[in-house]
Design a protein that fits this description.
Length: 441
């Protein structure tokens, strides 16, 4: 007879099991049940963390044009990173993520990250020079710790890795755990090796260790390939975002996300907390010049619909130069919000969200749809009564359609509106709209 896997005496504490029940889809999103069941902030003062957008040496790797590994296609070079810092500084973007900056990426690192060292830059990445160059321009580097699934190896270098990041002025680090399911490598002190799942207890404890170590050095982290969210970011608020929902990179590759993907994850994955989706691919082009299943207006809408205090400006500077009018909205939209209203929506069909900027009077509205054309109407009664607002509207053009060569068709309009007004806007197939509302002079 097999012995039981778990034995317990005395009091038994189990995880929460919850149901969120609402009259409609917006009511589900407005629940804070999961967050509030967690313990309060254990880190006390978080004033050192400043929400903000980040550009990144990343999308060209996702498209296969640059490489994480060293060689002729290496993306994380001094010249490339300086160009991204220049782009970020010119557009008020306070951070630049760099992937592939450290040793360990050469060869087959997938599920085999034992050569990763997050204190050893490659010879063509001068971290001291680049951090100083960015500091002069008001731009911080965002570190990247890709474990390749070698989690114990990462545990063994956590302290010195975050000390290194702090030394060079990094406020945020992105972590990663790229390997096959249930193949994360754990090595116990006696040398015994185990394979773990992302959502297992050992990995949950690992993420808490990451949060505590990062906090010691006043660093926030954004976990990719994360354990699913359970509201633990209330207890460890430096855990500012996580991926885990087939983000934008899947739109580059074959097997792309369907157009209703974002209208689904708002009411599923986003209930867990802040979500790093890496929006803003204005080129609408992925690997091998493949088409992303989106209109350009939807890419703008994602900055409002999807919440993350560290929101990526994910396309390349060269592509953004082709779309200066659309880039203006990305420059303007905040990442930190004082108020959020889900105005309407149906799971997997569409959603319209309004958010008020923290520390200001501006409101932003974003809506995304599915594969069908549809019309969305909503009231502006969330605006301050008696005030007039200038509305900058970025909507799908009348002929926009993600299935055709009209993916970039967009109409940009200005109106003066008040809280007594309503708007009715068309969402194209695969489309959306974004609106900036600021008090009119």
């Amino acid at each position: 007879m097999r012995s039981p896997k778990v034995r317990k005496s005395g009091a038994w504490t189990t995880p929460w099991r919850t149901l969120i029940i609402a009259d409609d889809a917006p009511g589900i999103y407005h629940s804070h049940l999961m967050l509030n069941l967690n313990e309060p902030n254990k880190l006390d003062d978080m004033s050192w963390f400043k929400p903000g957008k980040f550009a990144g040496v990343w999308w060209n790797m996702i498209k296969g044009e640059w490489s994480w590994a060293r060689g002729p296609k290496h993306g994380a070079t001094n010249a490339n990173v300086k160009a991204y810092i220049d782009f970020a500084a010119a557009n008020g973007i306070p951070n630049v993520l760099v992937e592939g900056w450290n040793v360990g990426w050469d060869g087959d690192w997938f599920g085999n990250g034992w050569d990763m060292d997050f204190t050893k830059p490659t010879e063509d990445f001068d971290v001291a020079m680049l951090s100083a160059y960015g500091k002069k321009k008001g731009v911080r580097l965002v570190g990247h710790h890709e474990t390749g699934g070698a989690v114990t190896h990462y545990d063994n270098q956590l302290d010195r890795s975050f000390a290194f990041a702090a030394k060079y002025g990094m406020m945020v680090v992105k972590t990663g755990y790229v390997t096959d399911a249930a193949q994360l490598e754990r090595v116990d002190p006696d040398g015994t090796k185990y394979r773990e799942w992302l959502d297992g207890q050992w990995m949950t404890n690992h993420f808490v260790r990451v949060a505590e170590t990062a906090a010691k050095y006043k660093i926030a982290f954004d976990s990719h390939e994360p354990v699913k969210g359970t509201g633990l970011h209330r207890t460890y608020p430096n855990w500012v975002a996580r991926e885990g929902m087939r983000g934008m990179e899947y739109n580059s590759w074959s097997g792309k996300n369907p157009p209703e993907h974002e209208a689904n994850i708002v009411f599923t994955r986003m209930l867990e907390g802040p979500m790093d989706f890496t929006p803003g691919i204005l080129s609408l082009k992925g690997e091998k010049d493949s088409n992303i299943l989106s209109t350009i207006a939807k890419q703008l809408a994602l900055y409002v619909v999807i919440y993350s205090p560290v929101q990526m400006v994910a396309d390349t500077p060269e592509n953004y130069a082709k779309f200066p009018k659309e880039l203006k909205f990305i420059r303007d939209v905040p990442t930190d919000w004082q108020d959020t209203r889900v105005l309407n929506g149906e799971i997997g069909d569409y959603v319209t969200i309004a958010r008020k900027e923290r520390g200001g009077e501006g409101w932003y509205v974003g809506a995304v749809g599915d594969e069908n054309a549809q019309t969305v109407s909503f009231k502006l009664d969330f605006l301050t009564a008696g005030k007039r607002y200038k509305a900058e509207i970025y909507r799908d053009g009348d002929d926009a359609d993600y299935r055709t060569d009209k993916r970039h068709s967009i109409a940009i309009e200005s109106k003066v509106l008040t809280s007594a007004d309503s708007l009715t806007l068309r969402i194209a197939p695969g489309g959306g709209f974004a609106i900036r509302l600021v008090p009119a002079k």
